[in-house]
Write a structure and sequence with these properties.
It contains six helices and two strands. It has 109 residues and is mainly alpha-helical. Strands 1-2 form a two-stranded parallel ribbon.
């Protein structure tokens, strides 16, 4: 039994070493502090807001759940006084709105 265990361990070690060319795995860089990680997404989401009254179809299609047909429907339904008008005007469903509400705005012209 010990020979079998030793053989299996030797095979596992050999397989692990052949996958990386015999070199140990490179050390991963230390992760950034939690503050820096949380600050970046907030900045990105603020700069990535999409104005539903002015955005192109291509920009609208970057939103989750918005394809070409919905993007065209959003454009046809303009202007919007508030971003939740997308739901009130039956352009998108409540569930799709839930996914995109933090990424859109409805600026007045």
């Amino acid at each position: 039994m010990r020979r079998h265990v030793a053989a299996v361990l030797a095979l596992l070690f050999a397989a692990a070493m052949s996958g990386c060319g015999g070199d140990p795995e490179p050390a991963k860089p230390p992760s950034r502090p939690a503050q820096a990680q949380t600050a970046q997404p907030q900045n990105q989401s603020q700069s990535a807001l999409i104005d539903i009254n002015r955005a192109s179809a291509e920009e609208l299609m970057t939103l989750k759940g918005i394809g070409e047909a919905r993007a065209r429907a959003i454009i046809r339904g303009r202007p919007y006084a508030r971003k939740d008008d997308l739901v009130h005007k039956s352009i998108i469903s409540e569930s799709v709105y839930g996914h995109i509400k933090d990424r859109i705005i409805a600026r007045q012209k």
